[in-house]
Amino acid sequence: VGNYVLTVQYEGTRYNGWQRQGNTENTIQGKLERILERMTGRPVEVHGAGRTDAGVHSLGQTANVHLDTRISPEEIRDYLNRYLPGDIGVLQVALAQPRFHARLWAGEKHYRYRILTGPVPDVFNARYQWRHEGALDVKNMQAAAVLLTGTHDFLGYSSLKKTKKSTVRTIRTIEIRTEGAELLLDFYGDGFLYHMVRILVGTLVEVGEGTRAPEAVAMPLETLDRTLAGPLAPAQGLTLQAVRYSGPILLEK
Amino acid sequence: VGNYVLTVQYEGTRYNGWQRQGNTENTIQGKLERILERMTGRPVEVHGAGRTDAGVHSLGQTANVHLDTRISPEEIRDYLNRYLPGDIGVLQVALAQPRFHARLWAGEKHYRYRILTGPVPDVFNARYQWRHEGALDVKNMQAAAVLLTGTHDFLGYSSLKKTKKSTVRTIRTIEIRTEGAELLLDFYGDGFLYHMVRILVGTLVEVGEGTRAPEAVAMPLETLDRTLAGPLAPAQGLTLQAVRYSGPILLEK
User: Fold this and answer.
1) Inter-chain touch A119–B81, beta carbons under 8 Å
2) Do A247 and A101 contact (CB within 8 A), yes or no?
3) How high is the pLDDT of residue A133?
4) Chain B residues near residue A123 by CB distance under 8 angstroms
5) Are B13 and B127 in contact (CB under 8 A)?
């Protein structure tokens, strides 16, 4: 039995997110597992690094799965791509170290949120953007973003109910910049709570619109009160860009 | 009353093509007309340069429309983009010469067909590609393409029934090249019959697969017999890239 690492891309528009949930079959994890079960004739469980929400996309989701098979990693990749729908693709399959776990070993995740500003739509990217009418003050957004970086309890920036698990996370940096007609918000951190990136975006957009002072993004961090943060930005603007691991993960040959 | 020229982009996946047809409301032309009729309070007719089929995309469809309005071209553009769905966008609106007609004045049209070769899907471009498994002999396809350029009766390369209208068209050039994981086929010509580009692609792919000799692409030109040409390639791979006009079309100020 080998432990395989997969790099998975998807256009999340049609799916109920990454994670298989009870009877909800329309998930990325569920699609992968069903094909791998047909391939091996046994039940399998695919572990993804990030549980992306319904409608969220991925350029570099990383997952691992234990498979009892003799075919090569390239053949596993080709088998998956043959049966997956066109909006899910497996870029790479490789043999990983036996104890590698895509989520538990993940060092840093990079999420990007794309906002289309300006009056002209971008029809070929509309599924990957939030279209926002009206100007945004990028400098104020950048100033606010600095206050959100570092190690904080982000419960107030999540849709979680109070939980016994830790809601402390570290955001290494938030980069905000204009590229063409888009405003790009790049989040790099060790982990993100349920809805956290999208609520951070919704709050930063309030700063950009001028309805919230940059300093006021600290309130939800201090009070842990969700109602003091901004609205949840739409899922379609969000993409999991990459997952980084600090040590080697591939099996040495 | 001004005559306006529009540059229109669309992702054609959801639509029954450009042209409004009787009760078929789900067309690009129909969407534009309905919004402009609401804007002006009068019936309008939008003339497109190319009648793209259901599922075909556009980067540079050009259209003209006579409108009785006092608002500026930029305001017309913004009004359209405010009410159009996200997969249709108007890049530009400008005042054209009174007799300008987008289709009748069109000098050359550029269509691109995108084929994804190779084993790994490209999920963010899947809607704009035909995914073709297996290698294609690009040199043979290029040799065949030369035989298709020039002025010919393309009835055998169309889905038209016999017609009194001329089915003679001129293809100036067909460029075929690999770009990344894609094979791009660019067609430049004065006009294209119903399904013509897609049947040319289906036939060229037979040459690439080795099931048709390059010389055999001439048969449908000589016999006008549709059954001697290859299959119709899927609509989703096709994009109207640009429409060119030989003279000036904008109203001088």
Assistant:
1) yes
2) no
3) 83
4) 9-11, 86-89
5) yes
pLDDT in tens, A145-196: 999 999 999 999 999 987 889 999 999 999 999 999 999 999 999 999 999 9
The pTM for the full model equals: 0.88
Whether B40 contacts chain A with CB within 8 A: no
Quick check: B81 and A120 CB within 8 A? Answer: yes
- The residue among A9, A31, A115, A124 with the most chain B CBs within 10 A of its CB, best to mutate, is A124
Nearest by Cα to A14 from A23, A27, A24, A25:
A27
Residue A135, both tokens? 């100007």
Q: What is the pLDDT of residues B222-245, one digit of tens each?
A: 999 999 999 999 999 999 999 999
pLDDT of residue B157: 98
Q: Rounded distance, CA B1 to CA B174, Å?
A: 40
Q: How many CB atoms lie within 10 A of CB A74?
A: 12
Residue type, A180: G
Q: Residue A53 gets which letter from DSSP? A: P
For chain A, strand residue ranges (E) read 2-10, 47-48, 57-67, 88-96, 108-116, 130-131, 150-153, 168-179, 182-189, 238-244
Residue B247 contacts A, CB cutoff 8 Å: no
Axis crossing angle, helix A73-83 with helix A28-40, rounded to the nearest 10: 120
Nearest CA to CA, how far is B172 from chain A (Å)? 28
Residues A221-243: tens digit of each pLDDT: 999 999 999 999 999 999 999 99
Transcribe B152-217 into DSSP letters: EE-GGGSSPPP-SS--EEEEEEEEEEEETTEEEEEEEES---TTHHHHHHHHHHHHHHTSS-GGGG
Q: What is the pLDDT of residues B101-121, one digit of tens each?
A: 999 999 999 999 999 998 888
3-state secondary structure of A3: strand
Q: pLDDT tens digits for B114-160?
A: 999 988 889 999 999 999 988 999 999 999 999 999 999 999 999 99
Please say whether the beta carbons of B131 and B201 come within 8 A: no
pLDDT, mean over chain A: 95
